[in-house]
Amino acid sequence: MPLAAAGELVARAAASRTAVAAFNVITLEHVEAVVAGAETADSPVILQVSENAVKFRCGRLLPLARAATAAAEHASVPVALHLDHVQSDELLRQAPGAGFSSVMFDAARLPYAENLAATRAAADWAHAQGLWIEAELGEVGGKTGQPPLDAHAAGARTDPAEARAFVANSGVDALAVAVGSTHAMTTRTAALDHDLLKRLAAALDVPLVLHGSSGVPDDELRAAVAGGITKVNVGTALNIAMTGAIRDHLTARPEAVDSRTYLTAGRAAMAETVTRIIRVLSATG
User: Fold this and answer.
1) pTM of structure
2) Active-site residue identified among 42, 84, 89, 150
């Protein structure tokens, strides 16, 4: 089917008090696994390509974007493309021509006033192109190149009053909030601040997004969705599944040299992870 619009998928999830899962993809195997896992769960899904993934792909957006588009068009469930954690204006401007219906513009590393100004400019441009735009306020941390972050440190969390002003003055369509999760966690031990999330949901009239969800246990994810999260970003969990399956395959078959054999195992493991996470999120509706 044709590419879906990420904003519409998020709006539908909000209306049903569930959350749409958004998975970061790096390779074609990631793309295929996300689509297959979503089809098994019979659920819409968002394929996300981050600026870091573009750097890994030799700085070229189109090869992975075109592969994702082709996979989406052959899927039996709605699939949208989202350009994630964009800091480069040059990359931002490639989004409309590459099939993306939405972007997450990331200026959260900047002081508040600079974050607001940069995000306002990005939002104005994105809306003129028909793009849905997400931003971040607070410190989720954990991304490649970022300094270490204590997600529970004073000042790391998103302040509801500041968030309300930020959304009103930036014009963004969704906000990623810092409520205790961290990017790139390899253990599922994150404890979310559900009281803060409740206050953020009451203060804002745009969808709330949870980043760093790979480190969040299932019960915490369900509670987050019940508390107002409508888009859940997942990346590291896929890499853990893929790497673990490939490691097990090669350990059991040290003579293996055909990459298709171990990539098949890695892809299947990622697809299972996708299905499980989607079912966790949809179980709250």
Assistant:
1) 0.93
2) 84
